[in-house]
Amino acid sequence: MSARRATAADWPQVAALRTRVFVEEQGVPAEIEQDAHDATAVHALAEDDAGRVVATGRLLVRDGRAVIGRMAVDAAARGRGYGAAVLAELHRQAVALGLTEVELHAQLPARGFYERAGYTAVGGVYEEAGIAHVTMRRPLV
Ligand SMILES: CC(C)(COP(=O)(O)OP(=O)(O)OC[C@H]1O[C@@H](n2cnc3c(N)ncnc32)[C@H](O)[C@@H]1OP(=O)(O)O)[C@@H](O)C(=O)NCCC(=O)NCCS
User: Residue 58 contacts by C-beta under 8 Å, 6 or more apart in sequence?
Assistant: First the structure.
């Protein structure tokens, strides 16, 4: 399973996947799903055997810290390692930028996925876009 950094040419497929997962499946308002950070973020993706984009995520740098978000795997492709591959690619990109720690806001049902990837929850549960989240961090070494 491999993932790669997305290029500008990939954006329509990346955006369509995020819309399917966050807007259509989870009910996040379309006007907050895409935001100004998308223009500057590093985006990663994984494709299935047919070349369709089935997983994505993005990396931002905030206050000197790597922040990962918008992790989304096509519903039909979950549980096959695509999410882990995208996360690993975002970690590689963060290391290449010289960053030493990564933070993310995990949806509660996805907490176990991030724990499996070495993240630890910090602090309590809060709501974002109407969905319960917890902040998680992981060293990048
Ligand atoms: C959460 C999500 C990104 C995981 O991606 P995925 O491709 O299904 O996960 P993977 O197949 O790469 O799983 C990697 C490992 O995490 C585990 N895992 C996956 N989802 C999990 C979950 N929700 N809870 C606990 N463990 C989980 C897998 O069993 C696997 O473990 P293994 O290494 O022992 O085999 C995906 O399910 C998804 O897009 N969900 C909907 C949107 C969402 O919740 N996004 C997260 C926003 S914070």
Answer: 37, 38, 41, 42, 43, 44, 68, 69, 70, 90
